[in-house]
Amino acid sequence: MVMKINSPEQTFNRLVNKLTPTLRKISQKNRYLGFIDKDDLYQEAVINLWDRFKEGQLENKTSSYIVRGCYFHIQNYIRTHKVRNNVLSLEEPILCEEEGRACLKDVIRDEGQDLLTQLNNRFIVNDIMNNGLTKREKDVFKLLYTGINLRQIAEKLGISHVRVVKLKQNIRDKYRGKFFEN
User: Please, are residues 160 and 132 in contact by the beta-carbon 8 Å criterion?
Assistant: First the structure.
């Protein structure tokens, strides 16, 4: 009688095949809103399982013990890989004047655009507002974004409309290659 010796890879594959239904369940159960989905968590559990298998940590362990270790690993992975978001309120004032105040909800347009276009527009606005504009250029940009004309902007800011045209041109020049077509 010939004794068949299994390679480590074959042994690991048998273990993964046996545990896959349970690992899929705990991966789906432990999802959270964000960029990590159930398949990412399942893959992370299998990778962790392989690392522990190579180090010999799974020898003589029960399936229950192994799955519990995977569960804890997934929990730790989620905790350490959450994306930190900078959340702003749509009610946050961005421009205060005598006549009132403008909030983000007044500036951010939603014209039925698809989500990708809206997100791209927000990235562009964020980039422009946080990279290289003077305070006056930011004021002009915010008001331009609300859709009012150059003379109204000049009136609100207490400057000439010619100055507003020049500030608008400065903004365009700074971002011509990045966002604007020639």
Answer: no
Fold designation for 93-175: Arc Repressor Mutant, subunit A (1.10.10)
* Residue 79 confidence (pLDDT): 77
Of 48, 27, 51, 50, the C-alpha closest to 39 is 27
Contact 40, 81 (CB under 8 A): no
> 95 pairs with which residues across the strands?
102
Low-confidence ranges of the chain (pLDDT < 50): 33, 85, 182
Prediction pTM value: 0.44
Q: CA-to-CA distance for 98 and 117, rounded, in angstroms? A: 34
pLDDT at 85: 47
Q: Name the residue ranges covered by the structural domains of the chain.
A: 8-80, 93-175
Measured between alpha carbons, how far is residue 170 from residues 37, 124, 139, 149, 155 in Å?
43, 16, 13, 17, 19
CB–CB of 66/59 below 8 Å? no
Written as one letter, the residue type at 163 is R
Q: Give the DSSP letter of residue 62.
A: -
| Tens digit of each residue's pLDDT (9 = 90 or more) over 85-128 | 455 555 666 655 555 566 666 555 555 556 666 666 677 667 76
The residue assigned the tokens 């150059």 is 150
Distance CA 19, CA 26 (A): 11
